[in-house]
Design brief:
rod-shaped; single chain; mainly alpha
């Protein structure tokens, strides 16, 4: 922060601190996890080291990235199924792919014989 403003932190105002935090979020593209650390570090510096408590900082944290799961193409699924030597394993993988069931759910399946 001192390098960014080219002056000592004790000479910075609250608006300077706010500007610096916006800079690291928007321009330096800090991650969502790094931003709260920067806020806590600035609060600690001002309140404990410099003895100048800051008013609450309003920082727009970056949006959380949504990761899309890797999906398999049908031909890749068929290749996996063909690699299985047992019919039971082939059926479990095919059922999992077709229904979206987890392997634990498939293992707990029981077949009832007859209509009751």
């Amino acid at each position: 922060m001192a390098r960014y403003f080219h002056r000592s932190p004790d000479r910075l105002s609250e608006s300077d601190v706010q500007e610096y935090l916006l800079h690291v979020i928007r321009d330096r593209h800090w991650s969502r996890a790094s931003c709260p650390q920067a806020v806590f570090a600035v609060r600690f510096l001002f309140s404990k080291v410099l003895g100048k408590p800051l008013s609450p900082l309003h920082v727009p944290y970056p949006k959380q990235e949504q990761k899309i799961p890797d999906l398999l193409y049908p031909d890749e699924v068929h290749a996996i199924i063909r690699q299985c030597t047992h019919l039971k394993q082939q059926s479990a993988i095919a059922l999992s792919y077709a229904t979206g069931m987890r392997i634990g759910e498939i293992c707990r399946l029981r077949i009832k014989v007859g209509w009751e």
